Amino acid sequence: MTPPATPEPAEAADERRPLTIVMAADTFAPDVNGAARFAERLSAGLAARGHDVHVVTPSVGHSKHGTFTEVIEGQDLTVHRLPGWRWYPHDWLRFTLPWMSKHYARRVLSQVKPDVVHSQSHIVIGRGLTRIAHQRGIPVVATNHVMAENIIDFTTLPPVLDKIVIKLAWDDARRTFDMSRAVTTPTRRAAEFLEQTIDISGVVPISCGIDKGNYTPDLTPREHTRVLFVGRLTTEKHVEVTLEAIAKLVPELDLHFDIVGGGDQRRNLEQAAHRLGLDERVTFHGRTSEEDLRAAYTRADVFVIASIAELQSIATMEAMASGLPVIAANAVALPHLVHDGENGYLFEPGDADDLAGKLRRVLTAPPEEYLRMQEASLKGVEIHDIERTLDTFEALYRGEPLPS
After folding, report:
1. Domain coordinates in residue numbering, the chain
2. Topology (CATH) of 212-383
3. Which residues does the UniProt record annotate as the domain Glycosyltransferase subfamily 4-like N-terminal (predicted)?
4. Judging by beta carbons within 10 Å of its beta carbon (0-12, 13-18, 19+), is residue 343 exposed, middle or buried?
5. CA-CA distance, 85 to 146, in Å (whole number)?
6. Is 171 exposed, middle or buried (0-12, 13-18, 19+ CB in 10 A)?
7. What is residue 160's predicted lDDT score, i.e. its pLDDT?
8. 16-209+385-398 domain in CATH 3.40.50.2000?
């Protein structure tokens, strides 16, 4: 006879109750970038598990601030939109006045009374919430999405001052991270970058995560002609290198390049496509719906990312979940996703000739070789399952050992 189960201690049961979580995000929907997409998916995933998630982020218009219920990834989230101001050197970036961040933090934390704060940025909102939460004994988990290349193009300062500003910013980041229970970043390589940059230790690599069931790979044999890029059109993405590589392959190969995303470099890239004689071979789709984005992945034959500033690249994971071979710059975290000769190829950053050669190799591969790369992408993305990401962050929030 099986003995009756021992009742769970009250304190253990309390540990498993749903949490109230404040998510601090300097960028969030409707922004389209990796950090915003991660904050959205994480927040929605936590809400789907029964947690009470409050997102603190800038308003889209200065007068449109307040607290709203917003549907994100199919989940109702409470979103606290702080008064946001447009940063005009950037095409969409908004910010909250830095000297007001602690004031807003006090107000939100007093209203919500969270169990934990998760900072998605140490720059403005996350900085203020971390400091006030630390004062009040509320645990903080911090995630770093920032690299220098992501911000120096928009400082409007003379280049000679960039290094000084970046050093000051990283010094402040370290002070913020020192107040956190845990510091995370999307990959082991990104963790090493952060540890070396600000001389901290113990940064936890946690994938941004992806629900691969949302994507529809096409493994049927077909002619391979469509090249795809998805992401912000900013200088560190180096989309012009892909344009130059495609120009080297035309008319040898009948290629078409689909570019999905918006950004301040769109006009320059349109001019580059015209100069290279690619007007009829390049389509700028701008920002699209999720449905159209997923359809673009399914139609494509290869995904190319020439960026030199990726701490993970959600777009690359989406491409892999769509069964695409990937050609990526051999820089920062991209080799963590793209294994040369397995699910695609790495090329020397900025080298259009090298990229053109890798494009030719993928697009002219025999059917069995191309299928092998597709299957390698699908297998490689399995370890980035969003449920594993949610399990890990839940453990950090509760102060528990991390799942293996």
Report:
1. 16-209+385-398, 212-383
2. Rossmann fold (3.40.50)
3. 32-211
4. buried
5. 20
6. exposed
7. 67
8. yes
Using CA atoms, how far apart are residues 245 and 238, in angstroms rounded to an integer? Answer: 12
Q: Which residues contact 174 (CB under 8 A, 6 or more apart)?
A: 198, 199, 200
pLDDT tens per residue, range 130-157 = 999 999 999 999 999 876 555 555 555 5
* Mean pLDDT of the region 99-110: 97
Residue-wise pLDDT tens digits, 288-308: 888 999 999 999 999 999 998
Q: Which of 137, 121, 106 is nearest to 183 (CA)?
A: 121
Helices 239-249 + 266-275 axis angle, to 10: 20
